Every structure is written in structure tokens, then in C-alpha cells.
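Try this one yourself first.
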């Protein structure tokens, strides 16, 4: 399911832009089935109403362990190629930490440090909802890449609600990107920082992500974060 993607091209896109799209990661049926979980009683550990925290407008729910099969498979299966890139990034940024090749081993480090709670989440937006620019840091252990899968169909299921990334460069003005996504596409992006090649070697830029206002309809997204939370 995941070996059909061109991981070399994905790494190049992440290196040059700070994000990459995995087209059609989930089928329309998988998108609908996953979005429908939002209304299930069980299977989640908490629900967050964004306006209550100043995070924006709309809401999300964090899955509980055990994760639904599709979420667990994506998290475990996408980790190894992303860990290889994360290790190159940490080397370039002068950060000592290296990531083990299997997700279970990385999670064991999170759990030993008291980061025990699962972070994959489902988000739901309606008209007027949006997600302020943020970084999903949940403790000292951070895996530097994450994924968001658009479960709804732009133009049909909703309008507005674009996925936005900003890149804050040292002593320079910030740059914004809008990531074009169709239903079932995933965007892989930097959680916190990424290395950028400059004329005098690599420097670090600070990344944030968010969602512009949804104008109509309903927008569901599956978020896959690889570190667990305190
Ligand atoms: O709704 C989105 O596209 C962004 C979701 C998000 O912030 C995340 O998955 O971390
Ligand atoms: Fe996020």
C-alpha cells in the first residue's frame, strides 16, 4: 500500500518545500469510513473544542489505544521511510537524536519518558471553522514529520478550508504555502523545524501549520503524529 509512493521524490519535496503530498493515500470508501468514526461513542480518549483554548474554531478527538486498524497501519507503515529522512534532517540540523527504524521502538522511548497517550486524531470543521497556525509538540520526544489526510472532497463536501504552512526563516520575513489536496491525499510536513540549504551551510527554519476558514460544508481530516503525548 505504501511502497507505490516515490519516496525519493517525497524526500526531495520535503527538502525543498517542507511538505510533500501522498496522492490518494486513502480511497474514497476509506475516507468515508474514517470520517464516520467521528460520531462513534467509543474509541477516543478525549475531545477538544478549539474555541475554548483559542486554537481556532471546530473540534477534534484523539483516538484511544488500540487505534483503529487503518490508523495503526498508516502510523506503523509510514514511519520507516520518514525516520530515514528525519535522521538526515537531525544530522543536518546538528541535533544528536537518531530515530530507530521501527515505530514500536520509537514509541517505547516516548513511553519510557512518560509520553504514553496516543496522538492520532480526527478533526471536524463546519462553516466558519478554522485552525490557527500551530506546532504539534506533546513532550520532549518529538518525531519531526507528521501527516494529515484529507477525508472530505474539496468543492463537493466543503469549500474554503485550505491547508496552510508557514516557514519562519531566521532574520527574514515568513513564507506561506497552501497545499493543494484532493480527497484521500495526505500531506507530510515538518512538525517544528527543518533544515534549509544556504550559501554558508544548512540553517533551521521554524514551521507552523493551520487551516483557513471553511466557507461551506463539512471538512474531516485524519492527523497522524508519530510521538505520543505526556
Ligand atoms: O485540518 C487539518 O488539515 C490540519 C490538522 C492538524 O492540525 C493536524 O493534523 O495536526
Ligand atoms: Fe496540527
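Now uncover the answer:
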Amino acid at each position: 500500500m505504501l511502497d507505490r509512493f516515490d519516496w525519493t521524490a517525497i524526500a526531495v519535496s520535503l527538502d525543498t518545500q517542507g511538505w510533500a503530498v501522498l496522492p490518494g493515500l486513502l480511497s474514497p470508501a476509506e475516507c468515508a469510513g474514517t470520517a464516520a468514526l467521528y460520531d462513534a461513542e467509543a474509541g477516543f480518549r478525549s475531545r477538544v473544542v478549539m474555541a475554548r483554548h483559542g486554537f481556532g474554531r471546530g473540534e477534534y478527538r484523539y483516538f484511544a489505544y488500540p487505534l483503529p486498524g487503518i490508523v495503526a497501519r498508516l502510523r506503523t507503515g509510514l514511519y520507516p521511510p520518514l525516520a530515514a529522512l528525519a535522521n538526515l534532517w537531525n544530522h543536518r540540523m546538528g541535533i544528536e537524536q537518531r530515530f530507530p527504524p521501527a515505530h514500536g521502538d520509537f514509541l517505547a522511548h516516548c513511553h519510557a519518558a512518560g509520553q504514553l497517550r496516543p496522538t492520532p486524531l480526527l478533526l471536524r470543521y463546519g462553516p466558519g471553522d478554522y485552525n490557527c497556525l500551530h506546532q504539534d509538540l506533546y513532550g520532549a520526544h518529538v518525531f519531526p514529520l507528521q501527516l494529515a489526510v484529507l477525508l472530505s472532497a474539496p468543492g463537493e463536501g466543503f469549500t474554503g478550508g485550505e491547508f496552510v504552512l508557514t516557514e519562519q526563516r531566521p532574520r527574514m520575513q515568513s513564507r506561506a504555502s497552501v497545499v493543494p489536496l484532493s480527497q484521500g491525499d495526505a500531506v507530510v510536513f515538518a512538525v517544528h523545524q527543518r533544515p534549509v540549504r544556504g550559501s554558508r551551510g544548512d540553517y533551521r527554519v521554524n514551521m507552523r501549520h493551520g487551516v483557513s476558514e471553511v466557507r461551506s460544508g463539512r471538512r474531516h481530516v485524519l492527523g497522524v503524529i508519530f510521538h505520543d503525548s505526556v
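Discussion: The chain is about 25% helix and 35% strand. The longest strand covers residues 201-211.
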